[in-house]
Amino acid sequence: MKLIKSIAVATVFTAASTAAQAEDLVFLTGSQGGTWFPMGAAMSSQITERQPDLSIQVRPGASLSNVVAVETGQAQLALGSSISTVDAINGVGSFDTAVTNVCNIAKLYQFIVQAVAVDMEMDSLADFEGRAMSVNPRGNASEVTAQMVLGTFGVTYDDLSKVNFASMSDQANMMKDGQVDGFIQTTTVPAGVVMDIAASRDVKLLPIPEENVAQLTAQNAGFRPYVIPAGSYPFQEEDIPTAAFGTHIMTGCDQNEELIYNITKDLAETMSEVAVAVAALKNVDVAQMAEDIGVPLHPGAERYYREVGVLQ
């Protein structure tokens, strides 16, 4: 079954083979060096502490391929972006075929699109034409978003002098070493990877104006305007307009209702502890977890949210 266009998903799952029992779960997150991997580890730690009969293998992943892994049963839990999962359910964008076995457990926090340059002569994303850029590996929502954002400025990968597909940590090293002029990431604010680069290089955030965000929203309704407040980074003196979309945790719709009910309950009741490791979650409460993102709730998650009164 071919679900994703031009993405070799098999390699993502070599280490993350199908869990044989419900008590032995695979949890796909994001690339090492990003926010998702430690977030998944922190969540898994809280869940297994409360449910010692569960074993959760936390693995690297990517937003698009994580959806396929859940759909095909190769992962029982996964992190994803709302824009990618909605595309998958509708069988559009990067997906040839609509998925039918992907359900939402909880909305988490917003992804903020951050265009960062170390070439201080750049003032616009249009200035990437003829310059070098790094992006996340193909199959990652950040990489897809980078293409979409560049497109609103009339720039494609073909217009760049070079494009490197790499993990966040490798991209940071490329920026520090001057191998690339900048990147587009979708992550939290402030982003550790940006702070890391700024510790050794002059950097600047490039704006995504309202008219460009409108173009993104026309392509995928999950995008929203966002402003990175001045002072979010030590080098940032002005507000920077950009775009944002949601992140969430998903599971197979066919997963055991009681299992997902208990996982949802554990996440809701320990979110403040998880937020100690992942600051992006510090303001996430059970009402936000239950918000509609265009992905059907798993019956176990829905039952929990109704019990605590955040769903009617």
TrEMBL record:
Alphabetical list of Gene3D superfamilies matching this protein: Periplasmic binding protein-like II
Keyword Signal: yes
Superkingdom assignment: Bacteria
InterPro entries given in the database record: TRAP_TAXI
Organism lineage string: Bacteria, Pseudomonadati, Pseudomonadota, Alphaproteobacteria, Rhodobacterales
Pfam family of the protein (one): NMT1_3
Official protein name in the record: NMT1/THI5 like protein
CDD domains in the cross-refs: PBP2_TAXI_TRAP
Keywords from the named record: Signal
Signal peptide stretch: 1-22
Protein's organism: Roseovarius gaetbuli
Signal as UniProt keyword: yes
